[in-house]
Amino acid sequence: MGMGKHVxxxxxxAAGERLYxxxxxxxxxxxxxxxxxxxxxxxxxxxxxxxxxxxxNAATHRVSYEYDIGPIPDGLQIDHLCRNRxxxxxxxxEPVTPSENARRAKSAITHCPSGHPYSGDNLIQxxxxxxxxxxxxxxxxxxxxxxxxxxx
Length: 152
Known about the structure:
The chain has five helices and eight strands, in the order ααββββαββαββα. By secondary structure, the protein is an alpha+beta fold. It folds into two domains: 1-108, Alpha-Beta Complex (Homing Intron 3 (I-Ppo) Encoded Endonuclease, Chain A), CATH 3.90.75; 111-152. The strands form four sheets. Strands 1-2 form a two-stranded antiparallel sheet.
């Protein structure tokens, strides 16, 4: 019996099928949570074999949408309706324009990076931006203290 050419089994398996090897279902939200590799922005990544035989990384939510629903229309992005970047449940994914995706992402942010809510008296709106009053007050107090210390 001769030795045949080694064929990588993963290569023959569609990335869409391999998604399920790295999945945990959140019973409460019905999110399909990716447990594999992620990028710096917190989105799931999976290896995808291209037609030229090379492997590249792709976003799991995009692979899931294309595997279960079909091609992503030109010029559109896949938005997570559940706001969970690790979710790849096709029922939670919707193709939208880049501007709509950005608008939805901005409205989903309810707290500043320090954890203070963007609501009520703590919310300052200036030139289309939301600012946190508590963080601004902390910065201003530290600035005043530095200036007083410099004066002696």
